[in-house]
Amino acid sequence: MVIEDQAAPLLQMQGIVKHFPGAKALDGVDLDVLPGEVHCLLGQNGAGKSTLIKVLAGAHQPTAGTIRLHGEEIRIAHPVAALEHGIATMYQELDVVDGLTVAENIYLGHELASAGFTQRRAVAARTRALMQRLGHPEIGPHREVGTLSAAGKQIVSMARALSRDARVIVMDEPSAVLDSGEVDNLFRVVDELTAQGIAIIYISHRLEEIRRIGDRITVIKDGVTVSRNLDVATTPTADLIKLMTGKSVEHAFPDRPGVPGDAETRLEVSGLSLAGVFHDVSLRVRAGEIVGLAGLVGSGRSEILETIYGARRSSSGTVTLDGVTLRPGSVSGAVGAGIGLAPEERKSQGLVLDEPVYRNITLSSFARIARAGWLDETAEKAAAAEQAAALDLRPPDVNRAIRTLSGGNQQKAMLARWLVHGCKVLLLDEPTRGVDVGARSEIYALVRRLADAGTAVLVVSSEIPEVLGLADRVLVVSDGQVVREGPADSISEHDVLDMVMEGSVA
């Protein structure tokens, strides 16, 4: 159901076109946003959402089209102009400066000064007030941002937007690094903002969030608006998926074929501890099995994967692959033995963004591809192209810089890396973060195919339905300890939430 505008739009973007060399990213996008509403912008990875908000933020100049604010046409020549017009953007990829304090990040570019001197006390006081408003008074103004978790950095990014007294705030996947309690807090802040007449443009691939927080929806596909001003409450999910993908996605999760009872244990973790983070974690993953780790952000899930991978040195315990104990704290040893990791922060931790797709895919397999000590670029490209075709990487050009791919296709490239390497154990940390519903189904199917071929998969996700739907067996982690283990189909989402919130061993 389409809702006709009840009031004059606060923001209008009409016929927005954006050309890049050799590509047309936007080909006529329309967006109307009312004061005090949460307007949800949906579309697959690569649909043009990021380009559209960069046009609104002044980072890109449109090739054609108009932007109106309060009915008057405006030109947003650069990011500072957007802020001057009261338009603030929170990007999916966190844009904080790790070496600066919380207060310095929040007021970067609009410092409070008198006679040329920064008013440090006033900045600190305002920062404390913003953090109190956001429900995180424990994040002090003088703390270095680099010491914060990804969720903490997201809070700082939100505070920066609020510090600008913005009338329009764009939130690009704001919940991607937040746990369920922090998402509730985010929605509380959004409710407060919209009650003050502030308009929110909310981008998320989590359709359940759209239902909770949104008012209207605009869907874009291939750089074009395919539907606008849809009522969140009355538009069926199946319709939204079809608008985004052009097809119906009937089954998000592939069937579980079941792991044979005589399947050999491929990965065994015994009494693994990392001082101050997690304690006495033991688990086994058999060949062909997908095991999920469910828990809140900060529960130690990601650190468990990183320690198994050798990126962190354990304080005690062992990691064994096919009966051979690995050396603690050695990534090269883990990779050489056959362990691969697709990290949560793929852009900062997993990909070399300015390198081509083929180099990112072959990054862990140079020793196999090299000839007489020299890297064979032709063989690199051939191996990468084979996997790109098998995974339906879009676009299939392995020579382009990987930063130009959408989030879903970057994740496919990460998985392709370990397919080329032929890993025995695949560690996946938030495998569908920032990935649209269509690409999610493709990634789920790929992970299941890898398991069916004998790979042992250990997956971490903040989305409990994802863990329960994808995994064969689930371990629930709370406060650095495994509090329950069992078949995925024997544990409910309610059970998991109870355990991670209470932290009690079942």
From TrEMBL:
Domain ABC transporter: 11-247, 259-504
Coiled-coil intervals: none
Classification via Gene3D superfamilies: P-loop containing nucleotide triphosphate hydrolases (3.40.50.300)
InterPro entries for this protein: AAA+_ATPase, ABC_carbohydrate_import_ATPase, ABC_transporter-like_ATP-bd, ABC_transporter-like_CS, P-loop_NTPase
Domain of life: Bacteria
A Pfam family: ABC_tran
SUPFAM superfamilies on file: P-loop containing nucleoside triphosphate hydrolases
Keyword entries, A-Z: ATP-binding, Nucleotide-binding, Repeat, Transport
GO MF entries: ATP binding
Protein name: Sugar ABC transporter ATP-binding protein
The species this protein was found in: Myceligenerans crystallogenes
